[in-house]
């Protein structure tokens, strides 16, 4: 059986044959895949957001579709509709691109709010309703949506309800100078390098086995209390109008297990939770008007929460040895 850490290493290495840097994106998408999560990938144009998503789709071996979202895209263009066939005199269901294991929704915040909302049922219920008929989506199902920063022209900010359905928000940063030079050298040598060079490195059976392994990772009570402290701090911070939801609390539980598993541990440590604070919460918090006027950002708030919330000791997070009837450790 392929373990979660072996799956992550295989995806990282295979994508690395094309991708330069972006290791944190590969880690985040792998964790999401192992925990039935969805990913919102943000960055300015040209930083390989779509390329990363396509590379991950090919390396993971899941059937995938890419949807280019623009203001004129309608909900039915995503979910599908019934089409009248004159030859048969009947309506035939035409399934939309959402019927795939992995859907890449490119530039999701250029679509209108009505079209964005067409993905809500798919993300949460893993089903869509077309003309009153409810249809299940393939399993596994994962959405990777890319978006440009909301300050850019022609974008629509995602509503809070939809942002909350994304397990992670990851940011594709501009490459460093060293990475930029490697990019130039690599594509100077091979100008046609792209996602078509990527091979499948994970089977469906291996993915399902790895998901079961992740589910069995141990989480100590002290770590669960730490998660509640972090989430609770989002409701108590004076700069936050709306804090994290129970869905975010569960995201911490599941993704911390996966982060532990891909690093070869069968138990969660506080650092797993701390490392996930920003990607889980950065898109979920709604700041107050005073915070905006004071130029306080969500990242500033999360940095404060991470610094001021006391984690338990890592020793407390480890599974305790079995105890015999006599009260002595075996």
Automatic annotation (TrEMBL):
- Any one Pfam family match given in the protein's UniProt record, by short name: AAA_3
Name the segments for region: Disordered.
308-330
Q: Which domain of life is it from?
A: Archaea
Q: Which InterPro entries match?
A: AAA+_ATPase (IPR003593), ATPase_AAA-3 (IPR011703), CbbQ/NirQ/NorQ/GpvN (IPR050764), ChlI/MoxR_AAA_lid (IPR041628), P-loop_NTPase (IPR027417)
Q: Name one GO molecular function term.
A: ATP binding
| Domain AAA+ ATPase: start-end pairs | 35-176
The molecule here is called ATPase associated with various cellular activities AAA_3
Q: Which organism is it from?
A: Halococcus hamelinensis 100A6
